Amino acid sequence: MVIKSPDQNPAFFCDSHIHTRLCGHAVGEMEEYVQAAIRKGLKKIIFLEHMEQGIRHTPGKTWLSADDFDIYFSEGQRLQAAYKDQIIIGLGVECGYNPDTHDILQARLAERRWDQIGISCHFLKIDGMADHLNMFSSKESNILIARQVGAETILDRYFITLTEAVRSLPGTMLCHLDAALRYLPEISFTESHYVLIDTLLQAVSTKGMAVEINSSGFAIRREQFPNRRILAMAQSYNIPFIFGSDAHKPEDVGRYFDLIASLPLSEVYP
């Protein structure tokens, strides 16, 4: 089924991946994101804030502490009540996987009731480095390290780590599947990578998870995350899709959803 118009599917009226200033690398209060979504005609949003564990990262953290999540839920529940007649507001988490802290992540996820659990992997431990490598950073220092280590090697580990995360964590959605090293202009996926991606998608299918169509890719590479080949692979396993803007400022809520309208999508979660 090709979705030609947002009016044909309610998924276009739900943004399932929104951040706030609490993560340390976004701007805007939660209420500003809610108000932006209402102005854009969305019927539902899900905040999906960052959870990481055991990551060494300089400078500063880019995720929420336990105390931050207390604030997040308190404010989120206030907004759910205040805007209940205008929009549905979900409170979710984007859990970045670190194999060294698997048990702690499991325990933290079990402590709260989430409306969505997104699975991702932003950081890798690299031999000889004090800090983890941020594979999603646009900083030249991170790009230099990625080139020194080798993009193919990093992507191998990235897809293998994601597969482990999907199999072992209680996720509901796989976030921005092919976005690692997105700021490396020469990045490309080998056939070996697609074999790993196929294994990853089989794990997603087995767990009954969805794959996110992350519209932030349009601003970075003029194509959504993941690419069309991966979307077709996901369709072959009857994996449903969820739309997310990955908004880090209020005006980015629901961005580029119109460009998703021409994608061949077999099943979409509203």
Q: Major sheet: size, sense and barrel closure?
A: 7 strands, parallel
Q: Whole-Å distance between the termini?
A: 16 Å
Total number of helices = 8
Task: Give the helix/strand class.
Answer: alpha/beta
Pick out the low-confidence regions: 1-6
How many domains? The number is 1
Please give the order of strands in the largest beta sheet.
1-2-3-4-7-8-9
What's the CATH topology label?
TIM Barrel
What's the order of the H and E elements? EHEHEHEEEHHEHEHHE
The CATH architecture can be given as: Alpha-Beta Barrel
CATH H-level name... which superfamily? Metal-dependent hydrolases
Radius of gyration, rounded? 18 Å
| Fraction of residues in H or I helices | 25-40%
The overall pLDDT average reads: 92
| Percent range for β-strand residues | 15-25%
Q: What is the level 1 CATH name? A: Alpha Beta
Shape: globular
Strand tally = 9
Molecular structure report:
With 270 residues, the protein is α/β, with parallel strands linked by helices. The chain has one domain: Alpha-Beta Barrel (TIM Barrel). The chain has helices at residues 30-39, 66-82, 102-110, 140-149, 151-168, 191-207, 217-221, 228-236; strands spanning 14-18, 44-51, 88-96, 117-120, 123-124, 133-134, 173-174, 210-214, 241-244. The strands form two sheets. It has a seven-stranded parallel beta sheet with strand order 1-2-3-4-7-8-9. Helix 6 links the parallel strand 7 and strand 8. Helix 5 (151-168) runs parallel beside helix 6 (191-207). The two termini are 16 Å apart. Mean pLDDT is 92; it is low at 1-6.
